[in-house]
Structure to design on (442 residues):
């Protein structure tokens, strides 16, 4: 028993070592990718925040209305799902896809027709396999999506909205909270919810006084008109939102992968330790047995 | 006589980075309504900008940049320009802009690609803005 066992254990140690090498390497790659992704995520913030603020301010203008804010009976919904291109990232893909599916189910229960717009290879595969109606499959790569691609993407979403193919756009993605925590969440992109915007604006400006604030923004000069500025802003807002969430989701993916690979490496080294113990024991047992055999042989001769 | 102009805070932001953050005396920028110059103490003003040149003037002289479409916002705190892309005149890749221009023109003249028309138009405008700013830089 002992000899066969030794060989087996040795082979297992070798294979676990190889796996650990891979997970270690992936961990390092994810760490460096995470760093650059985090930087990108942070540097895209000011642009988006200013856009958002401006939009809030325009909405406070008197008599303001836009086709992007009108809220009618919502029947058809487009759900944009952002996931990764690759697996081996812990629960990253699973969490966001599960949330998306729950969202779709609850929308369908309310009598909505849902079309899915998956971004990232994993999302495309997932929804294709489950037979959902898919809006477009061309965005299989969510990694390194540039601003111009985000613009094209938002053009697509906006034109569908304007042409009435769907009345509502939801976005499901993962947000990067910290290296250890990533949350999957869903937000409504279109139509823009006026009350939501106002609430946030109010909570932000609560220190300076709301009455003063709204009186102030009403004095702003919009050229040619508040509506036109707002409508011109929408594509930028949506592409900015998409870009930010893609960058965010990418950072979250890298963080999730890093954590997953870290624990995989830890597990591997733990496994190697226990296997080494087993191996040494088996070796010892073999030596003891051999000694026993020699001694027994000697005694037999005597 | 040297006239000292009052300066104000200017911030130019693109999705990739904060392109410019500092003091300026005057900017000239192309909006959907035409070229606009902003001096200090301007009233609150918001408008959309189109791809075109941007001139930033401060006590050291004038710098020129090529912007893509975005918005211009003048508030009490200063002026913020949001643009999809922004490059100083010396950073512009003229060759690339020339190629982009030709590509956009091809699409625009091709009737079978009508669905790409709008995008190509935007691209053409961007390329033209870069070319005009970049070529002026070359002449200096």
């Amino acid at each position: 028993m002992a000899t066969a066992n030794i060989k087996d254990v040795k082979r297992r140690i070798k294979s676990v070592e190889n796996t650990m090498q891979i997970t270690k390497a992936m961990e390092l790659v994810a760490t460096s990718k995470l760093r650059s992704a985090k930087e990108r995520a942070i540097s895209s913030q000011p642009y988006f925040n200013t856009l958002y603020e401006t939009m809030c301010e325009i909405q406070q203008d008197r008599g303001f209305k836009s086709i992007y804010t009108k809220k009618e009976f919502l029947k058809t919904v487009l759900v944009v799902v952002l996931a990764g291109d690759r697996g081996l990232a812990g629960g990253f893909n699973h969490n966001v896809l599960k949330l998306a599916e729950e969202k779709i189910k609850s929308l369908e229960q309310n009598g909505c027709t849902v079309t899915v717009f998956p971004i990232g290879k994993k999302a495309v595969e997932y929804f294709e396999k489950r037979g959902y109606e898919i809006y477009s499959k061309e965005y299989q790569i969510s990694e390194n999506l540039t601003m111009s691609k985000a613009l094209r993407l938002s053009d697509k979403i906006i034109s569908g909205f304007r042409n009435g193919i769907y009345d509502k756009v939801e976005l499901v993605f993962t947000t990067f909270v910290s290296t250890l925590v990533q949350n999957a969440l869903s937000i409504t992109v279109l139509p823009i919810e006026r009350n939501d915007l106002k609430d946030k604006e109010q909570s932000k400006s609560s220190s300076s006084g709301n009455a003063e604030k709204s009186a102030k923004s009403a004095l702003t000069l919009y050229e040619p008109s508040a509506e036109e500025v707002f409508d011109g802003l929408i594509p930028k807002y949506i592409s900015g939102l998409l870009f930010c969430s893609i960058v965010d989701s990418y950072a979250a993916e890298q963080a999730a992968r890093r954590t997953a690979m870290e624990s995989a490496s830890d597990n591997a080294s733990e496994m190697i330790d226990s296997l080494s113990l087993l191996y040494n024991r088996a070796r010892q047992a073999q030596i003891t047995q051999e000694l026993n055999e020699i001694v027994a042989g000697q005694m037999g001769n005597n | 006589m040297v006239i000292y102009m009052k300066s104000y805070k200017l911030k130019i932001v693109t999705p990739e980075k904060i392109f410019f953050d500092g003091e300026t005396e005057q900017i000239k920028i192309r909006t959907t309504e035409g070229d606009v110059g902003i001096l200090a103490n301007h009233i609150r003003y918001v408008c959309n900008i189109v791809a075109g040149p941007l001139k930033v003037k401060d006590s050291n002289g004038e710098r020129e940049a090529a912007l893509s479409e975005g918005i211009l916002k003048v508030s009490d705190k200063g002026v913020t320009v949001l643009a999809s892309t922004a490059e100083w005149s010396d950073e512009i890749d003229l060759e690339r802009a020339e190629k982009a221009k030709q590509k956009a023109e091809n699409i625009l003249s091709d009737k079978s690609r009508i669905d790409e028309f709008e995008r190509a138009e935007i691209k053409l405008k961007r390329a033209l803005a870069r070319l005009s700013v970049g070529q002026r830089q070359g002449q200096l």
